[in-house]
Amino acid sequence: MPKEAKTLVEATVWTDAAHAPVAAGILDRMREWVKPIGVGGPRGAELDDLSRRSGCPYHDDLRKLLIDHPSSYVLLAHPAGMKREDLLLAMEQDSVVLCLEPALADISEIADLQAGKTGGKRAAAGDDSGVPGIPGVWSKVVRIPHFLGSPGWESAANPLEALGTPLNMSLVNLGRRQDGSLYALLLDAWHTVLALVDLPVSIEASLISPRQGAAIGAKTAGGAGAAGTAAAGGIAAEKPVISGDVPESVRAMTGHLTAHARLSHGRGVAIQVSNQAGITHRTLWAIGESGLLAISDYKYALYDKSGKVLDHLAPTAGQGKEGLGQADEQGAVYTDLVAWEWRKLIERSVVGGFSAKPGIEGQALACCLASLLSCRTGQPENPQNLLTLGVGG
């Protein structure tokens, strides 16, 4: 008997010109799983081309796109995210919103949605989410590619049980300029950290924009290292830039960000994030009471205190597992990571992201905002203060 054809799930795409090629690459990798039925974004040649290649209509109005083409999935690849009312409309239509870019950047809006508040609407009978017709409202907002949903992380079953309390952690999250924003990478990084530890007591961070990086490179070119540069009156001898090119909004951040978070009892976390790195790569190192945990997008290893490997996963390039792409030292393939997680959601009908911690989205955003504020002030900032104020960025 002939093999039964797979039923494709319907999806709409909201993007912009810069991210249209990435969206096209994702749809290409999902062609045996997903049927695009609508494409939208600011009008331009790139969006027109994406619409033609996808064989579906184009809209430059997100709300009209959602109303005219309700779908199982909405792929959000626009750096501006979504308005709260558009997000609610998508969820009222029972769509899962897949966020390559964070949907929201306001703590109070996230808190309202997590609490089921939708502007005075009353909950339907039997719905404990507080949102009519939307059981578990925030569960339909899924960020991908999410490190907690990567093949490497999934292989580390119950990492805290084996590791014990994390005492020291470092996390690297690198991406390419064309794949997504620094905000998306930073939010993913903090979300990962908060899956393992409590909210930091303080965060101190610094940001180098591409323009600042070029200026620093020009000033230090031909110098004899930091000491020689300082002696010559170069960048190392200057006072540190506090605000400079640091924007006021998390969505406007770009470049290379480093952060140190102080946790309770003297523990700490170091984060390095860049959307200008040229490759896609994520790695977490966590030292605990019982040993060391190392996780990357495709690899996982657990060591005891003596350095003995207790458990590991190390796939080779082109291993053959669908959607993994090339797991090599040059980094992961961004579109493959997205496609792998999307297929997993479709296969398992999983919603709700990849963390059971309540309130983690608001906490992760607060850490992003505290990082940005520290970049501007040059001082450590407390994310709990921002969480209490319910600010946006």
What is the strand and helix layout of this fold?
Blueprint: E1 9-15, H1 20-29, E2 34-40, H2 45-54, E3 58-59, H3 62-68, E4 73-77, H4 84-92, E5 96-99, H5 107-114, E6 141-143, H6 151-155, H7 159-163, E7 166-174, H8 182-194, E8 202-208, H9 210-220, H10 225-231, E9 256-262, E10 268-274, E11 281-288, E12 291-296, E13 300-304, E14 309-313, H11 334-348, H12 360-377, H13 383-389
The tally of beta strands, per DSSP, is 14
User: What's the CATH class label of the largest domain?
Assistant: Alpha Beta
The helix/strand order is EHEHEHEHEHEHHEHEHHEEEEEEHHH
Mean pLDDT: 82
Query: Low-confidence segments, ≥5 residues, pLDDT <50?
Result: 120-135, 224-242, 317-330, 350-356
Class derived from helix and strand content? alpha/beta
Explained architecture:
The chain is of the alpha/beta class. Residues 120-135, 224-242, 317-330 and 350-356 have low confidence and may be disordered. The strands form 2 sheets. It has an 8-stranded mixed beta sheet with strand order 8-9-10-7-11-12-13-14. 43% of the residues are buried. Helix 1 (20-29) crosses helix 11 (334-348). It folds into 2 domains: 9-143, NAD(P)-binding Rossmann-like Domain (Rossmann fold, 3-Layer(aba) Sandwich); 147-209 and 245-334 and 341-389, 2-Layer Sandwich (Dihydrodipicolinate Reductase, domain 2). Helices cover 32% and strands 21% of the residues. The protein is globular and about 55 Å long. The chain has 13 helices and 14 strands.
